[in-house]
């Protein structure tokens, strides 16, 4: 499908009733800016795709009342709370824009920064991630997110300061390729860059939360780090699990074999009893683990061949090649 508007703005929200009126006002004002319109050659059109992630505070009802007056406003809603990742993913699926921007609903992100993100996209990037350079959140959150960002930066080698900013902009083909699960919205830049797209960052203004409460406390740090492990595995090894488990198996076997050899040599050459030595059990354990890793790797390979999945590449098409 061809894009039918220039810009889609996706707003995931959960119980943000008090913020919504101001948010809607600010977003519409930002979309009315001439400076934004001048970035496009064709007449500027946009859509506001608000995704209700199971709110129970009347947010959805209030928004629905506004639809008659705001032609650009479209609403998707979940039956229950499925999480921010799911809300973004639904928004991406139905977005009709050439460029797609996500923004939080709590007024912490600045709608007027959207223009800067789009400008950067037009400079040749596929995705631009906001950077809350001066983050206005309690210290506990700021510290946790520092830790999270620096671990992610080190492990992935992607030099972003802020992986989890609500404000992000994408070219259409990027979001249509994304396959998000769990709580993976934190790692979108990682997945995007691993697929060979160019990712940039742009400092954005950040406001303290005015209404409502945060949905992501400090308890999210550990799940977040486990998600990093999953993302690393999925992006690097999903299509070749044997390379991952094979390596573990190899290391485990070599160590286990070395230990067993050592114990055996000591027994027969130096007459040392082997049966009561703790290290013997470590050796045996490692060899058994090696066999298990190898079988998991093989099972993984069988799974990747059996389930019909998307290809392992992302490509551009030029000329008239139908889907
Ligand atoms: N949000 C959501 N579903 C959830 C949790 C949060 O749609 O399960 C929305 C929330 O309404 C807000 C954005 O995601 O628009 C970011 O959440 P929040 O402000 O609580 O996170 P923080 O800024 O504190 O990290
Ligand atoms: Mg927030």
From TrEMBL:
<keyword id="KW-0808">Transferase</keyword>
<keyword id="KW-0472">Membrane</keyword>
<protein>
    <submittedName>
        <fullName>Glycosyltransferase family 2 protein</fullName>
    </submittedName>
</protein>
<feature type="domain" description="Glycosyltransferase 2-like">
    <location>
        <begin position="8"/>
        <end position="176"/>
    </location>
</feature>
<keyword id="KW-0328">Glycosyltransferase</keyword>
<dbReference type="GO" id="GO:0009103">
    <property type="term" value="P:lipopolysaccharide biosynthetic process"/>
</dbReference>
<keyword id="KW-1003">Cell membrane</keyword>
<keyword id="KW-1133">Transmembrane helix</keyword>
<keyword id="KW-0812">Transmembrane</keyword>
<dbReference type="GO" id="GO:0005886">
    <property type="term" value="C:plasma membrane"/>
</dbReference>
<dbReference type="InterPro" id="IPR029044">
    <property type="entry name" value="Nucleotide-diphossugar_trans"/>
</dbReference>
<dbReference type="InterPro" id="IPR001173">
    <property type="entry name" value="Glyco_trans_2-like"/>
</dbReference>
<feature type="transmembrane region" description="Helical">
    <location>
        <begin position="221"/>
        <end position="238"/>
    </location>
</feature>
<feature type="transmembrane region" description="Helical">
    <location>
        <begin position="245"/>
        <end position="265"/>
    </location>
</feature>
<feature type="transmembrane region" description="Helical">
    <location>
        <begin position="277"/>
        <end position="299"/>
    </location>
</feature>
<dbReference type="InterPro" id="IPR050256">
    <property type="entry name" value="Glycosyltransferase_2"/>
</dbReference>
<dbReference type="Pfam" id="PF00535">
    <property type="entry name" value="Glycos_transf_2"/>
</dbReference>
<keyword id="KW-0448">Lipopolysaccharide biosynthesis</keyword>
<dbReference type="GO" id="GO:0099621">
    <property type="term" value="F:undecaprenyl-phosphate 4-deoxy-4-formamido-L-arabinose transferase activity"/>
</dbReference>
């Amino acid at each position: 499908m061809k894009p039918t508007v220039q810009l889609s703005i996706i707003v995931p929200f959960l119980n943000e009733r008090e913020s919504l009126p101001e948010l809607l006002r600010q977003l519409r004002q930002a979309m009315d800016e001439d400076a934004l319109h001048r970035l496009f050659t064709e007449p500027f059109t946009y859509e506001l795709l608000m995704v209700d992630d199971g709110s129970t505070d009347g947010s959805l009802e209030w928004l629905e009342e506004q639809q008659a007056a705001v032609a650009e406003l479209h609403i998707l809603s979940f039956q229950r709370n499925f999480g921010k990742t799911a809300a973004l993913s639904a928004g991406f699926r139905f977005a009709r824009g050439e460029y797609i921007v996500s923004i939080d609903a709590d007024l912490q992100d600045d709608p007027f920064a959207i223009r800067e993100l789009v400008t950067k996209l037009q400079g040749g990037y596929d995705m631009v991630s906001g950077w809350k350079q001066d983050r206005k959140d309690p210290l506990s959150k700021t510290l946790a997110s520092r830790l999270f960002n620096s671990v992610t930066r080190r492990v992935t080698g992607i030099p972003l300061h802020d992986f989890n900013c609500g404000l992000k902009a994408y070219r259409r083909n990027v979001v249509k390729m994304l396959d998000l699960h769990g709580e993976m919205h934190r790692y979108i830049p990682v997945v995007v860059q691993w697929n060979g797209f160019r990712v940039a960052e742009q400092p954005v203004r950040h406001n303290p939360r005015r209404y409502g409460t945060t949905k992501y406390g400090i308890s999210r740090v550990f799940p977040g780090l486990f998600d990093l492990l999953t993302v690393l595995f999925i992006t690097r090894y999903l299509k070749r699990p044997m390379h991952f488990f094979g390596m573990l198996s190899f290391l485990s076997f070599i160590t286990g074999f070395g230990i067993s050899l050592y114990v055996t040599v000591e027994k027969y050459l130096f007459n040392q009893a082997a049966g009561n030595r703790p290290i013997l059990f470590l050796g045996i354990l490692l060899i058994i683990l090696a066999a298990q890793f190898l079988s998991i790797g093989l099972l993984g390979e069988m799974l990747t061949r059996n389930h019909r999945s998307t290809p392992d590449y992302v490509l551009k098409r030029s000329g008239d090649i139908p889907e």
